[in-house]
Design brief:
The protein is α+β, with helices and mostly antiparallel strands and 90 residues long. It folds into two domains: 1-40, 3-Layer(aba) Sandwich (YefM-like fold), CATH 3.40.1620; 41-90. Helices cover 60% and strands 17% of the residues.
């Protein structure tokens, strides 16, 4: 995994995109911290790759929500109950 500062990406975009073909992924950093991940893609598998990324993002969002709920002593039952209330209010 290669790390590239955002400034370097801005100045050497074409070179870094070519480099991406040899790397599995490139992490773009902002102020030394990860800001985004670049992965190689092509026309043939773009839809499949985007679908996989969306699933991963959804799983991460769910994990973060569960962690936050646990920190606030909110149970799965409490969440289900709140969802049921909202559904009946619509």
């Amino acid at each position: 995994m290669k790390f590239v500062p955002s400034r370097e990406l801005r100045l050497r975009t074409a070179e870094i995109l070519k480099m991406l073909q040899d790397e599995d992924e490139i992490v773009v950093t902002l102020n030394g911290k990860p800001a985004s991940i670049m992965i190689p893609a092509n026309e043939d598998d773009l839809d499949q790759v985007m679908s996989m990324i969306k699933r991963i993002k959804a799983k991460n969002a769910l994990r973060r929500m569960r962690e936050k709920a646990a920190e606030n002593n909110i149970t799965e039952y409490d969440i289900d109950e709140e969802i049921a209330k909202e559904r009946t209010n619509k």
